[in-house]
Amino acid sequence: MPNFERSLDDQGLGSATLDDYVKVLPYNAIYGRVLPPPLLLGNMLLEDALFPGMVALLLGLVGLFIRSREGDSTLAFERTSFRRGALYFLALGTLAIILSFGPEIGRASNYPFLALYHIGLLKPLRTPSRTFVLASLSLAVLAGYGTAKITARYSRWRRDVGSGRFLGCVMVLLLLAELATFDLPISAVPVHGHVPEAYSWLSEQGDVRVIELPVRFADLMKQAEAVYFSAYHWKKTANGFSGYNPPFSRWLFDDAMRDFPSVRAAAVLHGLGIDYVLWNSGWAEDYGLLERGERISATPGFALERRSGYIDIYRVEGLGGD
User: Fold this and answer.
1) What was the pLDDT predicted at 322?
2) Cα–Cα distance between 74 and 152 in angstroms, integer?
3) Under 8 Å CB-to-CB from 14, ≥6 apart: which residues?
4) Which segments of the chain are extended strands (E)?
5) Strands (E), 267-309
6) What's the whole-number mean pLDDT along residues 160-174?
7) Short-list 147, 157, 287, CA closest to 219
8) What is the pLDDT of residues 231-281, one digit of tens each?
9) From the CB of residue 92, how many other CB atoms can be counted at a distance below 10 Å?
10) For domain 192-316, which CATH number applies: 3.40.50, 3.90.550, 3.30.310, 3.30.70?
11) Residue 215 has pLDDT above 50, yes or no
12) Which one-letter DSSP state was computed for residue 29?
């Protein structure tokens, strides 16, 4: 896809807003649980909770604005280190925040983003708000400078290196307390001995290609499950998903496999070099297609290879004359 690009309208859907930078997740131990939310609450799925925390912000400001005095020998106060380190990451973090807003900041055009977009650097980007990762990492460096300066000054004032180290540990604990997030929603997946035996059997079959059915192209949870289990057999698989929708994949799952099992489906899979079909009866039940599993062996082009729990494995065979 050498000419693949996303429109500015597409990128606008995944861009940050000014409100996002004062949003936290409701699972945050302090802002979402202990205190009444002083900030807005974000949504993990929308990736819109971009508040970096007050501790990191304050330490970053300290790292930028505390200047060296006579007797300051710590590397954090050294001018070359400050220029190449703190100022560099200040510029990088600022640019990352500007780019995170996508084509517009508020209702005004975001000219730095548009300039990089029109010269081609940002055209494949789907979610501009994710450039916040660079801003967050830059802030971490600036906060490191702030921590180093505070602990150095405190050690010098107390004439005790250990006291500065203790203060540094306290600041790290404050940072961890502010960022602590618990009870994030997760989905359990089978591991080790709970992985269906069909995938272990498949791992021993040499260089083969597989497809797991029935599934629709846009059913991301089932496609993700197939991708996850592919790590237990490492065979090439037609299943998968991404932020980009390849037209061929949509055609394969939503058109060619729509009437599976059929002679047409067998011909398509054989033509693609697919060796095995994994028929997942759990998925079939979700789609109301249980009866189709009973017809697969009777359809030319498919032969039952193995039954393994809720997964039946069918070998794709060539039709007569090909």
Assistant:
1) 47
2) 7
3) 102, 126, 127, 128, 129, 130
4) 23-24, 40-41, 104-105, 108-109, 209-213, 236-237, 276-280, 302-308, 311-316
5) 276-280, 302-308
6) 90
7) 287
8) 999 999 999 988 777 889 999 999 999 999 999 999 999 999 999 999 999
9) 15
10) 3.40.50
11) yes
12) I
Q: How do the domains of the chain map onto residue ranges?
A: 8-179, 192-316
The count of other CB atoms within 10 Å of the CB of residue 11 is 21
DSSP letters spanning 147-191:
HHHHHHHHHHHHT-HHHHHHHHHHHHHHHHHHH-B----------
CA atoms of 53 and 30, how far apart (whole Å):
11
* Cβ atoms of 209 and 238 closer than 8 Å: yes
Helix (H, G, I), strand (E, B) or coil at 237: strand
Q: Round to whole Å and give the CA distance between 20 and 308.
A: 48
| Axis crossing angle, helix 111-118 with helix 88-100, rounded to the nearest 10 | 80
Evaluated on CA atoms 260, 280, 203, 303, the torsion sign reads: negative
> What is residue 318's predicted lDDT score, i.e. its pLDDT?
75
Residue 83: partners with Cβ closer than 8 Å, 6 or more residues away: none
Residue 252: which H helix or E strand, with range?
none
Of 7-11, 48-52, 313-317, minimum mean pLDDT range: 7-11
The label of the residue with tokens 């693949």 reads 4
- The single-letter DSSP state of residue 78 is -
Report the distance separating Cα 13 and Cα 291, nearest Å. Answer: 41
Kindly state the percentage of the chain with pLDDT values over 70. 97
* ∠ Cα 118 123 126 (to 5°): 140
